[in-house]
Amino acid sequence: MENKFTSTNGIDIYSYLSPHIGAFSISLYLRYGLLYEGKDENGFAHFFEHSIFRNISTLLDGKLYETLDRSGLYFNAHTYTDYIEFFITGAPKHFKTA
After folding, report:
1. Read out DSSP for 25-89?
2. CA-based angle 43:14:50, to the nearest 5?
3. What average pLDDT does this structure show over 37-56?
4. Given 18, 19, 72, 98, which is the most exposed site by the fewest CB atoms within 10 A?
5. Cβ count within 10 A of residue 88
6. Cα gap 4→59, rounded to integer Å
7. d(CA 83, CA 8)
8. 71 to 21, 58, 65: CA distances (angstroms)
9. Which of 81, 97, 75, 98 is nearest to 30 (CA)?
10. Which position has the higher pLDDT, 19 or 64?
């Protein structure tokens, strides 16, 4: 069953529990992509995705990838026509770390 709630800053959060799957996935979707870019901004969404992806490790004092490896977590991002997705997946026992 899907659950939805809205955070205090107005962001809709959805969750879906499937007890038969031995993994979790957390995704963040940004409503931005080629569809929202003008000719002078062409490619900015993809550049933004890479900028975030490359610099997010600084939030953990440069230890993001070490933490991910140690916990068997997979972190990636993709830019699509109408959104950017950042996601992390792993075993349920490492959900809190993710």
Report:
1. EEEEEES-SGGG--GGGTTHHHHHHHHHHHHGGGGGTT-HHHHHHHHT-EEEEEE-SS-EEEEEE
2. 20
3. 85
4. 19
5. 20
6. 28
7. 23
8. 18, 18, 10
9. 81
10. 64
Q: How confident is the model at residue 1 (pLDDT cuts 50, 70, 90)?
A: low
What predicted TM-score, i.e. pTM, was given to this entire model?
Answer: 0.80
Question: Is the C-alpha dihedral spanning 11, 93, 17, 84 positive or negative?
Answer: positive
What number is the average pLDDT over the span 16-44? 87
- For residue 13, give both structure tokens: 């959060």
| Residue whose entry in the numeric block shows the structure tokens 């995705």 | 49
Instruction: DSSP letter for 8, please.
Output: T
What does the pLDDT read at residue 59? 76
